[in-house]
Amino acid sequence: MSAAARVLVLGGGVGGLEAAAALGRRQNISLTLVDRSPVHYWKPSLHEFAAGTMQHQGNCIPFTDTAAKFGFTFVQSSPVAVNREAKTVSLENGTTLPYDYLVVALGSRANDFGIPGIVDHCMFIDSLKDADALFATFRDAVQKARAAGEKLSVGIVGGGATGVQLIAELCKSIDDARGLGPAVRKSLLDAVLIETGPRILPAFPEAVSTAATRQLEKLGISVLTGAMVVGADDTGFNLKSGEHITASLRVWAAGVRASDATNLLEGLERGRSGQLGVTTTLQTTQDPAVFAIGDCSRIDAAPIAPTAQAARQQGQYIGRALPEVIAGKTPAPFVYNDRGAVVALGDYNGWGMLDAKRSFGGGVLSGLAARLIHEGLYRQHLAGILGITPTACSTLREHLSPVKPDLGA
Asked: What positions does the domain FAD/NAD(P)-binding occupy (predicted)?
């Protein structure tokens, strides 16, 4: 009997865990998953963790549990070196792991574009650790502003889904917190959303952008479009127009680039934003033993937006294709099935997009449908990892006992 193929997955996000779950139980594969976090989480929910409207319990799955369930080995660490010739990956914890096939699922981060002051003076929500830090800062800022009888100025840069949903979720956090509520939010929060382009939510039809802008303005949020940030300091943002936007709490949610860890894979083709170039079988163009999926990969022939649904489908594809590669076969190419997109503004409103021309949402009932679909995408992924019954119980528990954010009121 031939030795089991050693498969190493770097990154336990949506795509990485889907791949590990599909491959871990195969008898001819010995799989190891490496991630710096001890738990798996649904990255599109980071804005909810950052606002304190989603709890860790039931929504953060220990990798040790999934490793035991799906039959793979989990190592909590981060890669520091990759030797493609020797087929080894060195980790921050001092160990070196060999591989026959490497699956890179390291995800992405916001792109600061090298703008002065962004890294030093802004918060990000690229990871659960970032989201937890943002909530702690937001909670402290709310308490400090209320104690001083002052406004809390919040500035978020980035009018895509992340920035739009985050600023709405911060409103929801104050509305739902014990001892606070909508009246307190209106007198307390001075928030601004800054977008370089001509409108927010550029991936959606213009009608959705207009409706979302009106909804945010109804919540008391200022929406600045066509506003290019050229610098940041500890008081706020500097715009190209010369205007200074005051913000005591500053969040950068603009742009997308591959995780810096992909730079460890020297000699491979990569795009302008650091993504590894891959073929239609998701193998890197210059090394067929290295696969890349999710936000850190790019198929030049048919680029795919960096979304959780794309990463999930690619992870599931790896589960089918890699065993064929190991067997010496050529798998069928990856085909992305775009199931549309959804953006949910807390409990206030929501919209969905079935394709490039058809959108839905807006208003109380249709907005509710969009928000339920938004949650349903997450629950579907969770069911694949935890099972249908545990996911159903967790969902029911959360709806019967909604989270009351702890803002120290």
From this structure: 6-315
